[in-house]
Amino acid sequence: MAVAKQNMENGSRKVRSLALLALFFVAAQFFAAAHAGAYGDTDHLHNGHPCIVASIVKKASDMDVAAAPEFALDDHAEWIEAVPLPIAPESRTLRSGTIRAPPVHV
């Protein structure tokens, strides 16, 4: 009984920790969206210090990343062409007649 109770407590502790972690990430997304809505992309200060969020966004947008190449999709996909269905071979059980039982050894 004590082991089962301890396992339940460990399981509920994991669930609580996971829920708190998920809540933390959702709250961080909410505050980041609210901050971006309030200040936008402009450089600004908080209590005389430059905004960390704005500087991170600026550094991420200034990264030297090659642009993705443009490609055109064909209007005809070759792998969608119609293929005739295979013909199933005739079943041998229909030609053999009735099914017989194995011989009885008396």
Summarize the structure.
With 106 residues, the protein is mainly alpha-helical.
Structure description:
By secondary structure, the protein is mostly helical. It has 3 helices and 2 strands; from the N terminus they run H-E-E-H-H. The chain has helices spanning about 1-40, 50-60, 90-95, and strands spanning about 45, 50. A two-stranded antiparallel sheet has the order 1-2. A hairpin with a 2-residue loop joins strand 1 and strand 2. The longest helix is centred in the N-terminal third of the chain and has 38 residues, at about 1-40. The two termini are about 60 Å apart. The mean pLDDT is about 75.
How are the SSEs ordered, and which strands pair?
Elements: H1 2-39, E1 45-46, E2 49-50, H2 52-61, H3 92-95
Antiparallel strand pairs: 1-2
In N-to-C order, the SSE pattern is HEEHH
Query: N-to-C terminal Cα separation, in Å?
Result: 61 Å
Main pleated-sheet profile: 2 strands, antiparallel
Helix content: 40-55%
Low-confidence stretches: none
- Cα gyration radius (Å): 34 Å
- The secondary structure category is mainly alpha
Number of E strands: 2
By DSSP (H or I, 4+ residues per run), the number of helices equals 3
Biggest sheet strand order reads: 1-2
Shape: elongated
Q: Beta fraction of the residues?
A: under 5%
**Overall pLDDT metric:** 75
